[in-house]
């Protein structure tokens, strides 16, 4: 019953007029993989497969006022919020002309005897169609803690969710084309927002390079890490820098911090001048992963 009430609250807020915000936005970047694909009529044209890499982001104003009456749940109508998922060549995103990104949060529900766990959701029901005309009717990110601990309050977070605090973290998309439906669930494996600390150190960090400048990249991991493989991507597309592959392990150092060196990184990046956000991901032998983006600007 209470879970149904939360969804009704979300729907009503999507159609309500939102208050003006102070305009302090946080952008949360995510990486994950397709873990549940339903497309029996090939609406997506075979462009999405199980296990496929997915990148995305959602952005919202942290000063948006809470429109929910209950002290245990927050409802936020966000006309300036944006959401996006990139799967191969397909891009699922909120509509630029009316991006009704909406954030709803239910926290400390156990305090009032609620049977549903606390959760944090970002939802959009006004989205751009796919190139073939298929609709994107439902689009959401959800983080849920079955232990009832997180999120601790109904306030909007000012940074990306810590996945260790949530046992369920996924994105979901649903749509139709000529009466044929499709859906896709993405298991979120990492999140990032500016200001977060990371166990992965990337050198060089945020930098500006001039045309023709040569440089190598070093990925420095926590002491004792056992590396399985490492990859780099730009806008969800893999770059030709990986371990094993073009990158290699550096000799041991006194801090016992495993380090991957990717030589001549400048040769593997776009030649055009501009600002690029490269996402590095290192998977360890125990199955965990450490990801971190770095922003590089190239000038001619």
TrEMBL record:
Keywords: Signal. The keyword Signal applies. Residues 1-22 form the signal peptide. This is DUF4198 domain-containing protein. It comes from Steroidobacter agaridevorans.
